[in-house]
Write a structure and sequence with these properties.
CATH topology of the largest domain: FAD/NAD(P)-binding domain
Structural class: alpha+beta
Oligomer: single chain
Number of strands: 22
CATH class of the largest domain: Alpha Beta
CATH architecture of the largest domain: 3-Layer(bba) Sandwich
Strand order of the largest sheet: 8-7-18-19-20-17-21
Number of domains: 3
Number of helices: 18
Largest sheet: 7 strands, mixed
CATH superfamily of the largest domain: FAD/NAD(P)-binding domain
Length: 493
């Protein structure tokens, strides 16, 4: 029987292991071992349940229109657990100068479904409204640019892409905080082909993004976000329950990978042991972070790192649970939460140099979710659950601070926007260092080049958020596909 090693037990590695267990049950002649350095599976998918509150310490949902997470939930008998965002309450604000400015309804990120949304909104400047009004009239010009095969590169930054359509004002005042809240990155360097592929496709087909949305009739009929009633860790627990216990090795660190005539040899050290044990496998699926993957495979493919994302964003999540009594003094507006425009690089560098923690926290605050309004079943009746998300260039300077310090800094940062907050019933803090790879301009071409190199090793697969998407559905899709391919290659041999 052929043996497959899976390196990394986050959502990607675990999804691959789950799929291999299914392939085993279907008759594939393969065995596998999942190695995870931590004491738990799931990576950044981490739910804390306490006193009736359900707090997501990592991602809080998946995009409904991407079906792969829902399909997995149904397979795990969790269909009754699937709940949706309360889009009837959906309103997002932009925090500016201590005030919350509501973003207009009827938009898909920075693109309106109807220009009337823009004309009637006080959010946009006269310059931005004029740029939106011009965009449909520029359809042929924009389409010609998109289809111009003489361009040296088919990629560009998100900012350049948005400026071509809607001008610099929209790029900096709307697109920048929207994308920072999702990716923790800077639109001046993020790849539009990697980050907004649907918009790139609309431009190539219609030129105008506004016309494209109208023609595609893309206004969602389903709620935008989906999750599980008792938290996304239900996916982790569900998959884990379908995997034989002997196939999971927690607190096991793979320190080296070697190519041998018989396949692959791993040097493995369990945290409880001092010695390193060599283990032989016929194939490997690598689901570790990009920098770890590059180190492990350096002896096999020395140039691997040049194709992987060079930068990543660290995140800190702080959840505040307010009981019904505590919540009486809160004045949280109706909606899903707010985004925060990011300061210029000079300001962030100054705060880092001076170790000004309150200023660093204010600069690192990217978003706050009004969790009890976004989803049902997240807090007891009358209670309030807020979740602050910190990232960007200032976040790494805060990672070493204590939970108490981070909780105090986060509360002070939120109070700059929401006014004075009472002492919460409890606070939850999670740190996710270098957890989100930043897809820089040219990322799709680099991944294509990477795949051509890796193709020389048919019994090797690379999965995770460094390659083809960072959302849960994308990670689940790629991981299960890789496992199916490997089972097909080895299962009958």
């Amino acid at each position: 029987m052929k043996r497959i090693a899976i390196l990394g037990g986050g959502i990607s590695g675990l999804s691959a292991a789950y799929e291999l267990a299914r392939q085993q049950q279907a008759g594939a002649s393969v065995d596998f071992v999942l190695f995870e350095a931590a004491s738990r599976l799931g990576g950044i998918v981490d739910t804390e349940r306490r006193n009736g509150f359900v707090i997501e310490c990592g991602p809080d949902s998946w995009v409904t229109e991407k079906s792969w997470a829902r399909e997995l939930a149904i397979e795990l008998d969790l269909e009754a657990e699937i709940i949706y965002s309360q889009d009837e309450h959906r309103k997002t604000y932009l925090a500016k100068n201590g005030e919350l400015r509501p973003l207009p309804n009827g938009m898909r990120m920075m693109v309106p479904y109807d220009l009337a949304t823009i004309r009637d909104s006080p959010f946009f400047s006269a310059e931005a409204k004029a740029a939106y009004a011009r965009e449909p009239q520029m359809a042929e010009h924009l389409k010609a640019f998109a289809l111009n095969d003489r361009q040296v590169s088919r990629d560009e930054s998100v900012r350049d892409f948005v400026i071509r359509h809607f001008g610099a004002d929209v790029a900096d005042s709307l697109a920048a905080p929207l994308l920072a809240g999702v990716f923790g990155g800077d639109i001046r360097t993020l790849s539009v082909r990697a980050v907004l592929p649907a918009y790139v496709a609309l431009e190539r087909k219609y030129g105008s993004l506004i016309v494209g949305l109208e023609q595609a009739q893309n206004q969602p009929t389903m709620p935008i976000f989906s999750t599980l009633r008792n938290g996304l860790s239900g996916l982790i627990q569900g998959m884990e329950s379908h995997i034989p216990r002997q196939c999971i090795r927690l607190e096991s660190i793979v320190q080296a990978v070697e190519r041998t005539p018989k396949g692959w040899q791993l040097q493995v050290r369990d945290k409880s042991a001092t010695s390193i044990t060599p283990e032989q496998f016929d194939a490997i699926i690598v689901a570790t972070p990009a920098n770890v993957t590059a180190q492990l495979l350096h002896s096999i493919e020395p140039g691997l790192s040049q194709f992987l994302p060079q930068d990543s964003s660290s995140a800190i999540v702080v959840g505040f649970a307010f009981t019904e009594q505590q919540a009486k003094s809160l004045q949280i507006p109706r909606g899903f939460g707010f985004l925060v425009p990011q300061p210029d690089q000079t300001a962030t560098k100054s705060a880092r140099d001076q170790r000004d923690l309150p200023e660093l926290a204010q600069q690192a605050l990217l978003a706050c979710t009004f969790v009890d309004q976004k989803f049902l079943y997240r807090a007891p009746e009358g209670s309030v659950l807020l979740r602050a998300f910190f990232g960007g260039p200032s976040a790494p300077a805060l990672l070493q601070e204590s939970d108490v310090t981070l909780g105090n800094l986060a509360q002070a940062a939120l109070e700059q926007v929401l006014g004075e907050l009472p002492e919460p019933g409890f606070t939850v803090v999670r740190r996710w260092p270098n957890s989100l790879p930043l897809y820089a301009v040219g990322h799709p071409d680099r991944i294509a080049e990477l795949e051509s190199h890796i193709a020389r090793f048919p019994n090797l697969r690379l999965i995770g958020n460094a390659y083809r998407g960072v959302g849960l559905p994308d990670l689940i899709r790629d991981a299960r596909n890789a496992a199916r391919e490997m089972a097909a290659i080895l299962g009958g041999s």
